[in-house]
Amino acid sequence: MAALIGCGHGALLDQLEARNPVPRIVLFEPDVAVARAVAAAGSRPSRVAAGTLRVLAGPAYAGASELPRQFTDLHTAALFVDPDLESQRPDEVARARALLDRLRFEASANQGARTASAARYLLHTLANAPRLARESDAGALAGLFPGLPAIVVAAGPSLDRNVHDLALVRDRAVIVACDTAARPLIAAGIEPTFIVASDSSRANAGHLSSLPPSRSWLVAEGSLHPSAFVHFDRRVFAFRVSDHAPWPWLREIDLDRVRLDTWGSVATTAYSLAHALGCDPVVLAGADFAFTGERPYCRGTSFEPLWASWAGGGSDYRSIWQALIARWPEVHEVDVHGRPVRTAPHLVSFRDWLRGRAAEPAAPRLVNATGAGILSGPRIEQSLACEALRSSPVLDPRVFDDAIGRAHRSARGDTGRLLSRVDRVLAGGEPDTIAAWQAFAGQAAPMAAIHRMLESPEYLAWQLARTPAVIPS
User: Fold this and answer.
1) Dmax of the chain from CA atoms?
2) pLDDT (tens digit, 9 = 90+) per residue, 29-60?
3) 116 pLDDT exceeds 80?
4) CA pair distance 341, 386, nearest whole angstrom
5) Does residue 270 share a domain with residue 214?
């Protein structure tokens, strides 16, 4: 794979293409006219369509945030810079190089995360399979609330202030909360319509297992830690973030679940859900994507007891937050008020993803009601939530519940079919399936672990029911 900054009106690109007839190339071209001409020349439109060539035009380089997912080996790509461009326009080359460096970092981090979490993803999804069968597909939510406003709530530091604004309009929108933000919202008397969760770690499950009972519906990635579902029986819509194991196997028994567009963040996933629901406008709150006030999160999340225990041991909160922020490379961006603020590469990536989505022709109107942080762009409005939704009518929550309940009932799976297939795997009847799972997950998913996940309470009860009763003589 190769990355180019400038292409000498196509000459550098021609040389690379001649060296390898089917190269995988990303071109950062500062000149918009040159970028368009290069992308339209010869057979390049078909290569762009096939995904082997991406041509990004400066100065914004729209679409750059997608590169680490499209080219997972971007961090290993050979770099070529047009020497004429570098000598004549060094500042533009420096900007493109800085962007590429950040994208390389993201690709490398993504690859490391995939490798580290593969076994956990596989094992949790297998353990959750009976729940996936009796719950519903998030695809059933598509277009459910066309034209209704949505408020997407993240747990950035500014939510401490935003939550009071949201209280004024909580009955005028579909409220889509990130799992980290659900607890502060419920504590303030704001019950989310949906809570979105995508992180499969046990620690992240604490955001959900620590919640008080509510009527909220959970929209969950299939690999969540099983403890995350404790409060949401028959109130779950499942989705997936990829096509890898064990989804091909689940798909064979009609347990596929919709793929939500995401970018490694529950906040971007929550936005994707609001978009899929057909909501317009989408108002974001607590979406700092920065360490506003030198803090990593708002107050009142499930992290609060941990912070309190550290404070009880003699640390002050400011030092605790500084230590948490210091885990990330130091990056500064200009915030919505034009002032520098500390952030991190992954947070900038999430911001850039939302910028790209907001610029799409079919995107809903996007309003940032955070009042701080780095989320801004040409099609992103800055406004208080109460101002953005001033003319929106009050919505009847019973209408929400009825519509969501019908959607849930319409897309449930077949538990019996799943358990029959599990029985076959456990009996040794699908060696190729086991081999594919272990190839994906590596040594962290031995046969014994896979068997433990498949031998769920549902499977054991199903097996017991099929065992002929022995009546003593």
Assistant:
1) 98
2) 888 888 888 888 887 888 888 888 889 888 88
3) no
4) 26
5) yes
Q: How confident is the model at residue 399 (pLDDT cuts 50, 70, 90)?
A: confident
Among candidates 24, 110, 121, 98, which has minimal Cα distance to 69? 110
Q: What is the 3-state secondary structure (H, E, C) of 102-135?
A: HHHHHHHHHHHHHHHHHHHHHHHHHHHHHHHHHC
Residues 251 and 331 in one domain: yes
**Residue 473's pLDDT is what?**
65
pLDDT value of position 31: 87
The CA distance from 375 to 347, in Å, is 10
- Nearest by Cα to 193 from 136, 240, 139, 144: 144
Question: Is residue 317 domain-shared with residue 375, that is, in the same domain?
Answer: yes
Of 124, 132, 170, 131, nearest to 151 by C-alpha is: 170
> Which whole number is the average pLDDT over 183-201?
95
Residue 124 within a domain: no
- 270 falls within a domain: yes
How many CA within 13 A on the CB side of residue 120? 15
Q: Is pLDDT at 273 greater than 60 in this prediction?
A: yes
Domain of residue 444, residue span:
415-466
E strands of 331-449, at which residues? Answer: 331-334, 340-343, 366-368, 380-382
Domain identity same for 312 and 167? yes
Split into its structural domains, the chain has a count of: 3
Compare 102 and 142 and report the one with higher pLDDT.
142
| Among the ranges given (115-119, 299-303, 395-399), the one the predictor scored with the smallest mean pLDDT | 115-119
- Mean pLDDT over 95-117 rounds to 72
Dihedral angle, C-alpha 278, 272, 121, 217, nearest 10 °: -50
Q: How far apart are CA 78 and CA 81, in angstroms?
A: 10
Give residue 347's identity as a one-letter amino acid code.
Answer: L
pLDDT in tens, 438-455: 999 988 899 999 999 999
Query: Token pair 């400011």 is at which residue?
Result: 318
Query: In terms of domains, do 443 and 323 share one?
Result: no
Token digits for 407? 């959607």
Residue 401 lies in a domain: yes
Alpha-carbon distance of 104 to 79, in angstroms, equals: 11
- For residues 80 and 16, the answer to whether their CB atoms sit within 8 Å is yes
In a shared domain, residues 80 and 173:
no
Q: Which residue has the tokens 């970028």?
A: 35
Tell me what pLDDT residue 179 has.
97
22 burial type by CB count under 10 A (0-12 exposed, 13-18 middle, 19+ buried)? exposed
Q: Does 21 score more than 80 pLDDT?
A: no
